[in-house]
Amino acid sequence: MTEITKEKTKEFRENFLANNKQVALQRSVVKNGITASAENVVAHVENTPVFSIDLATGKVSNQKQSGRCWMFAALNTFRHKMLQQFKLKEFELSQNYTFFWDKYEKANYFYENILATADQEVSSREVAFLLQTPQQDGGQWDMIVSLFKKYGVVPKVVMPESSNSSNSRDLNKYLNKLLRKHAVMLRKLVADKKGETEVAAKRSAMLQEVYTLLATALGTPPEVFDFEYRDEEKNYHLDQELTPQSFYDKYIGVNLDDYVSIINAPTDDKPYNQSYTVSMLGNVVGGTPVKYLNLEMETFKQLAVKQLEDGESVWFGCDVGQSSTRDSGIMALNAFDMDDLFEADFSMTKAERLDHGDSLMTHAMVLTGVDLIEGKSTKWKVENSWGEKVGEKGFFVMSDAWMDEYTYQIVVRKEYLTKEQLAAFEAEPIVLAPWDPMGALA
Fold it and tell me: DSSP secondary-structure letter at 19?
């Protein structure tokens, strides 16, 4: 072991105080904060919000104090289609409706994993992983696909936001308490060698408790409703006695099986042109399994450009907290100059960041534009779900270099893949550990 001596610390102090530049920076950082002192105006100049391809999307939505970005992003891609097809000025689908069913299904998925690991000690890595966060707000593309297929969607006016969907902290706290209690009970039933019938009965009673908690906090999901609206030409429309699934079929009409999830993970353990899944990751038991195809970054970006060129926005996942300015909405590698500020070298490769816990997917948004110069992408337009007070009325600008380093996932139509890529996606996936960075939830 190497001890820090007082003499060594004194040497460090003297070296710091002898550096006039660093002492001047100290005054700025102490008064103004780290990011404010390191922000680089050049990044703003290089990333102006002008794009050669710029899709019409309407106003941005606002997930508020919740982690529902993945479902907001998915619902936004549907909203874009509806605004154009039905000539709507402003419209949103209910995020609270999808939120309810996601929580409900995640509880049941948690029970599955608890029962599957009931023969392991509580201290085992798998069980400890499950109990650390029984469920949370985040999710993956294939998880939202499972919800849409099973429960459909509804307009926001039919199931509007609740206090607990807009600020989910307390809901998650007490739902996770309940699920951990249920884990205790399920593991005890298995330890006591109770039969499947008794376990199933207890599990059903647990789900009733979960449903009651969710309905109390979020409201009761509608089964039948009317859809009433005026289009941009002031024409009145009324469609009665719709179900969430019939509404999806009639007004969304997207075949979710036409889309594939592409990742860029340049780590040694994930060769390109292979498919992957993640153990214990999902929400709907019996739903669409989480599955990715890992491709090189240039191909990854080309696929996103193709979809944008065809007039369709792109769901994507990234590490939004890295080198991005929240207020002005700039995502660029030179947004802050931390190396000079601290006289330190923070650089790592994308693979090194993934392997050593410095980065993973934390947020999902929508690509709604791209700036192409001589056929090459230079910057991207991003629709966020943090309301209109950030970025350019809620839209961010992402430099192409930032996408290379901190974007991990896109969802595109299968038709853009080559035969070889599609075959690789459809092949039996390599199973990754539950805690693999590609299992991170947006």
Answer: -
- The b/e string for 361-399 (b: 16+ C-beta within 10 A; e otherwise) is bbbbbbbbbbbeeeeebbbbbbbbbbeeebbeebbbbbb
Residue closest to 401 by CA, chosen among 2, 46, 37, 45: 46
C-alpha angle 60/307/313, rounded to 5°?
10
92-146 pLDDT, tens digit per residue, is 999 999 999 999 999 999 999 999 999 999 999 999 999 999 999 999 999 999 9
- Which sign does the torsion angle of CA 230, 231, 236, 241 carry? negative
pLDDT over 90 at 89, yes or no: no
Residue in this structure with the two tokens 């769901």, named with its chain if needed:
315
pLDDT per residue as tens digits for the range 264-294: 999 999 999 999 999 999 999 999 999 999 9
- Mean pLDDT to the nearest integer, 31-35: 97
Q: Roughly how many angstroms between the first and final C-alpha of the chain, as a whole number?
A: 39
Alpha helices in 122-195 (DSSP H): 125-132, 141-151, 163-166, 169-191
Kindly state the percentage of the chain with pLDDT values over 90.
Answer: 99
Are 103 and 127 in contact by the 8 Å Cβ rule? The answer is no
Is residue 341 within 8 Å of 37, Cβ to Cβ? Answer: yes
Residue from 245, 324, 313 nearest 84 by CA: 313
DSSP label of 43: H
Beta-carbon-side half-sphere exposure of residue 227 (alpha carbons within 13 Å): 21
Identify the helix (H) or strand (E) that includes residue 318: strand 314-318
Q: Could you tell me the CA-to-CA distances from 350 to 184, 302, 305, 353, 364 in Å, in that order?
A: 40, 19, 22, 5, 18
Query: Please, which residues bridge with residue 336 across strands?
Result: 39
Residue 423 token pair: 């075959």
Q: From CA 442, how far away is CA 431, in angstroms rounded?
A: 20
The single-letter DSSP state of residue 252 is I
Active site (catalytic) residues: 69, 363, 384
Mean pLDDT of the chain: 97
Dihedral of CA atoms 96, 101, 107, 109 in degrees, nearest 10, equals -130
pLDDT tens profile 360-382? 999 999 999 999 999 999 999 99
Nearest 5°: phi and psi at 376? -110, 135
Tokens (6 digits) for 66: 């919740």
Which positions ≥6 away from 386 have C-beta within 8 Å?
60, 62, 63, 326, 394
Contacts of 278 (CB under 8 A, 6+ apart): 290, 431, 432, 433, 434, 436, 438, 439
